[in-house]
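Let's practice the habit of predicting before peeking. Look at the sequence and jot down your guess about where helices and strands might fall. Then scroll down.
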Amino acid sequence: MYRTRNYSEAESVAALLLQAGINARLNSPKPIGHMVESPVLDILHGVFAADCTEAEMTQ
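Done guessing? Here is the structure:
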């Protein structure tokens, strides 16, 4: 799994993996965060890959 705060970057990673024949998909953004004085929310975009070896992912 690959995570980034930059949507374009996540989209590019997913596209590169798909082009390489790796079953990858871009996950929907999901708010995460913690409470300090007020909620701090951050958006992480995830790319998930399945049915591939570590060597394929590194490449």
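How did you do? The chain is about 30% helix and 40% strand.
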